[in-house]
Design brief:
The protein is an alpha/beta fold. The chain has nine helices and eight strands. The protein binds pyridoxal-5'-phosphate.
């Protein structure tokens, strides 16, 4: 399997160095920035290599895949190249759900006990997550996904839609809103993503002014090709897949 040739530990090292350099250029501490290793579509053996190299935060797009890889690995034998052995409960490993969550997947998303849900993109899914978190006696940390570019193909609240929904979102007792997330338009030049990252930061700053009791701590923005630009604009979580695990099989 080609994927098994990937030097995950070396890639992680290089990504961490690039994060540190980008933080230094922005006058920030690298400790403010969480490296999220996006392991979607990647086999468990690569995830384990990353864990062995000290990586702790992992991101998955699909709730079912997250469940199979991180919660119930007995069911993971069906995944290509996966080794059926438990990753969780490894107390140090934190699972993040970074993809849009379908309504019917809300119970299982909560059952995954994610450290953070990055892509709450409409009030209805927030209400569903709140309901199941309440039933499970959990408080769920979530980010609100913003479609900052206004592209029709993108998930997320429009900035206006977010201002309309935010009062309702903040009254859901079992969700703790921890910040914002965005995916800029696809573009090979990371400089072109910077205005979108900056716009998300400004929106966060305005929300923090208006709702000072909420911890608008996180800006989840930046992927393999543009995380340095995102760090320059204030990212606190970068979601990096390919640069760590190689191309997805
Ligand atoms: C796949 C994905 C990533 C990682 O993308 P890479 O380009 O492989 O780093 C980050 N965020 C989200 C939401 C994704 O779906």
């Amino acid at each position: 399997m080609e994927a098994q040739q990937v030097d995950v530990a070396g890639n992680l090292d290089r990504v961490r160095q690039r994060i540190a350099a980008a933080a230094a250029r922005a006058g920030r501490s690298p400790d403010e920035i969480v490296l999220l290793a996006v392991s979607k579509n990647q086999p468990l053996n690569l995830v384990r290599q990353a864990i062995a190299a000290g990586q702790r935060d992992f991101g998955e797009n699909l709730v079912e895949e997250a469940w199979q890889k991180f919660v119930d690995p007995g069911s993971a034998a069906s995944l290509t190249g996966a080794l059926p052995a438990a990753l969780l409960p490894d107390p140090g490993v934190r699972l993040h759900l970074i993809g849009p969550i379908q309504s019917r997947k809300a119970p299982r998303a909560v059952a995954c006990r994610p450290a953070l849900i990055h892509a709450v993109d409409r009030l209805k899914i927030a209400e569903r997550l709140n309901r199941f978190a309440g039933e499970a006696g959990l408080a769920l940390d979530v980010l609100l996904e913003v479609n900052i570019s206004g592209e029709a193909s993108k998930f997320g609240f429009s900035p206006d839609g977010l201002w309309q929904a935010v009062d309702s979102l903040l009254t859901l007792p079992h969700l703790r809103v921890a910040g914002l997330m965005t995916i800029p338009p696809e573009n090979p030049d990371p400089e072109n993503a910077r205005p979108y990252f900056a716009a998300l930061r400004r929106l966060r700053d305005r929300l923090a002014e208006r709702y000072p009791s909420v911890a608008w701590r996180h800006l989840s923005m930046g992927m393999s090709h543009d995380f340095e630009a995102a760090i320059a604009e204030g990212a606190t979580i970068v979601r990096v897949g390919t640069a760590i695990f190689g191309p997805r099989p």
